[in-house]
Amino acid sequence: MVNQSDAGHVSQAGDGSGRCWLSRFLAELKIAATLLRGLKIVFLAPTLSLVDQTTKALAKTFPKAKVRKDQLNDNLFDFKDDELPNISVMTPEHCLAMLCFNREIFTDVGVAAAIWNKIITFSHF
């Protein structure tokens, strides 16, 4: 359930004005705080190439966290794990499929982040 008093935070990256550094710092701080609380993060990215790019960046920034991305395979509904890693990066379609078939694995997610047009939106659960 989304906490209405702290429902979301929008961070925009890279417009050349120098705010990119601050936006990235705030995003990383929010992720670190969520991990320290023992909760998990789900990142939604609109394309598989952005999923790959985001996964690499998060793994580099948070080397001790288990970061996993969408795995492109023949069966979209092949969910081998019964729990999410610390940070999951996936497409919205894959997330929706996982929610439909195994909603319980999302019980310890503290933050969901969506990346659209260089804007990162965080929602708290």
Strand arrangement, largest sheet? 1-6-5-2-4-3
In round numbers, the mean pLDDT is 76
Q: Note the total helix count.
A: 3
Give Rg in angstroms.
14 Å
Number of strands: 6
Q: Runs with pLDDT <50, length 5+?
A: 1-16
Span between termini? 5 Å
What is the N-to-C order of secondary-structure elements (H for helix, E for strand)?
A: EHEHEEHEE
Question: Helix fraction?
Answer: 25-40%
Shape, please? globular
Largest sheet: 6 strands, mixed
Summarize the entry for a quick read.
With 125 residues, the chain is α/β, with parallel strands linked by helices. It has helices at 19-36, 48-61, 92-101; strands spanning 8-12, 40-44, 67-69, 87-90, 109-116, 119-124.
Question: What attributes does this structure have?
Answer:
34% helix; 25% strand; 125 residues; six-stranded mixed β-sheet; single chain; alpha/beta
How does this model look, in words?
Helices cover 34% and strands 25% of the residues. It is of the alpha/beta class and 125 residues long. A six-stranded mixed β-sheet has the order 1-6-5-2-4-3. A hairpin with a 2-residue loop joins strand 5 and strand 6. The longest helix is centred in the N-terminal third of the chain and has 18 residues, at 19-36. Mean pLDDT is 76; it is low at 1-16.
Q: What's the helix and strand layout?
A:
Elements: E1 8-12, H1 19-36, E2 40-44, H2 48-61, E3 67-69, E4 87-90, H3 92-101, E5 109-116, E6 119-124
Parallel strand pairs: 2-4, 2-5, 3-4
Antiparallel strand pairs: 1-6, 5-6
